[in-house]
Fold:
Amino acid sequence: MTVIRKNRKVCCRNFRRLLDNEDSIQMELETSENMEKELNEKISQLQIRLEQTKKEEGSQLKQTEEVHLSLASLEQQDNFILENMIRIEEEIQILQ
Structure:
């Protein structure tokens, strides 16, 4: 075999390897793009869930604050009633 034929054969083999590598790289690229698309969809879904959870949390915090204010009002009323009862009992004691 002449040197030219050997070089040609080596070049052809290298060219086939390059084509094989290009196909492999293209498949990996497509796989990577599909994975990226799936991950972006999952991120979008999780973002929606996060926003819903934040809304629910805000609603629950508002409800908790309303209950807290209601409790404070009831405690104030209870103290007022207790003070009135003590005052009335003291006046009854005085009148007896």
